[in-house]
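Notes, p. 3: input format for complexes.
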Amino acid sequence: MAGAPDSAKGPAAGEQLQQPQVSCQVFPERLAQGNPQQGFFSSFITHNQKCQQMLLKTVETNPYVKLLLDAMKRSGCAVNKERHFSCEDCNGNVSGGFDASTSQIVLCQNNIRNQAHMSRVVTHELIHAFDHCRAHVHWFTNVRHLACSEVRAANLSGDCSLVNEIFRLRFGLKQHHQTCVRDRAILSILAVRNISKEVAEKAVDEVFESCFNDHEPFGRIPHNEKYARYAHRDFQNRDRYYSNI
Ligand SMILES: [Zn+2]
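Output follows (245 residues plus zinc ion):
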């Protein structure tokens, strides 16, 4: 199941590394229900079932996601897989979104290519959901709030880690990671806001330092799954410590 090639999409696996893709829309324009994009009911079923299967595996095994789900629960925003996730067809090349009005994470079943991609999308959107849970985020009216959450999502979800693995030998790892986070946050904002690139850049730059250094609930930047597992273990120990007081 993991990494199975998606015959409908074709292109080589390297595509995701080369093309800076907008991975998230905070308020995706959801397609009308019951209107499968391909027009083939069978292909819709396949995409949807595959999406559900990948989601289940991600929720059960991915350390980033497990940590975020635990953190949401502890913050009083327990996530229910049936209620808070929705596999749907999406417009364009968007992979996922967080719908704050319904507290639902949308997973774009027509664009999520494989298990690793699913895990990154779920992690990214759960960081928005976590921010939504812990703070009064004004997604629509304050672009700096959106910018902050996008910086955190790009920084902590592993969106920039895959690229890092390749570039770390050529550039300073830290510098490249920051540049990648900034660029992705700007792209994500431009995907959902009708504002100029300059305004988006300004919003990201204004919040960058504080939001880049806010690693909650990970406690550190989880550069790979091993770090994420350590972070999850630390989080559970933190939990245990507090519950013993
Ligand atoms: Zn996002």
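The first strand starts at residue 85 and ends at 88.
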